[in-house]
Amino acid sequence: MKLVIITGLSGAGKSQAMKSMEDLGFYCVDNLPPALIPKFAELCVHTQGEIEKIALVIDIRGGRFFDDLFESLSVLKHQGYDYEILFLEASDPVLIKRYKETRRMHPLSPRGRIIEGINEERNKLSELKKNAKYIVDTSNLTAAQLKEEIKKIYMDGGISQNITIFIQSFGFKKGILLDADLVFDVRFLPNPHYIEELRPFTGNDKQVRDYVMKWPESIQFVEKLKDLIDFLIPYYIKEGKSQLVIGIGCTGGKHRSVTIANILYETLKEKGHRVIINHRDSVIVRE
């Protein structure tokens, strides 16, 4: 029997994660009082194989019952039931924005400031996070991308490196990325914008990619970039980061940055990393 405890910060996407688990054949229960977990696991075992995959959403909505969680997990282990924890989190600005958009109150600060509730919740969940097998930061994830992450973990067998890498191309003239951990400026590369027949296309098109990558400096830069990212990722994982945001910028964000971002995405994907790509400024309307 596979038992997954879904937990994490309020507003981080636990409900969406549960829906994704249901799609993968998990029997899901939301907000089960933690004291009932061992008994519930026992009941599922007695179904003689009818229920083999279980996902339980447990969080601070349980109020005083939430304090029973660690004792219940200890009992679960003692009874011989294995479990793993999936922890969802997001940055403070993103969580605040989500609360304001839905006009919900934070469970730990119904009459106070949202950030106060978030800070208190982070403290209460810190020990759970330390014991989590998978940590997913949903700050930059759409609902569809979160579903894909859940699928990668629980249908494709999971990924040992517990970090999600976001690659985002952008144009400096429209503003630098505010949430990037690493930003690489590729404006030194030859610019397809000045080639009239290439201007209407983007780095997603073969002719632009071929042009950008035909130069020795482009090839050398990509190789050095790959080496640097390979060197850094293990240290970010060791530090405990659950997400790494890499920005690739050129002037307009349509040609060079898109090309280099795509190549880096393909390389990291081939190496088995959880990686998501987005091109912020590459939408072109062609007549």
TrEMBL record:
Q: Where is the RapZ C-terminal domain?
A: 164-281
Annotated residues that bind GTP are located at 59-62
InterPro entries linked: RapZ-like (IPR005337), RapZ-like_N (IPR053930), RapZ_C (IPR053931)
Q: What is this protein called?
A: RNase adapter RapZ
Q: Which domain of life is it from?
A: Bacteria
Specify which residues bind ATP according to the UniProt entry for this protein. Answer: 8-15
Q: Where is the RapZ-like N-terminal domain?
A: 1-154
What keywords does the record list, in alphabetical order?
ATP-binding, GTP-binding, Nucleotide-binding
Q: What PANTHER family does this protein's entry cite?
A: RNASE ADAPTER PROTEIN RAPZ (PTHR30448)
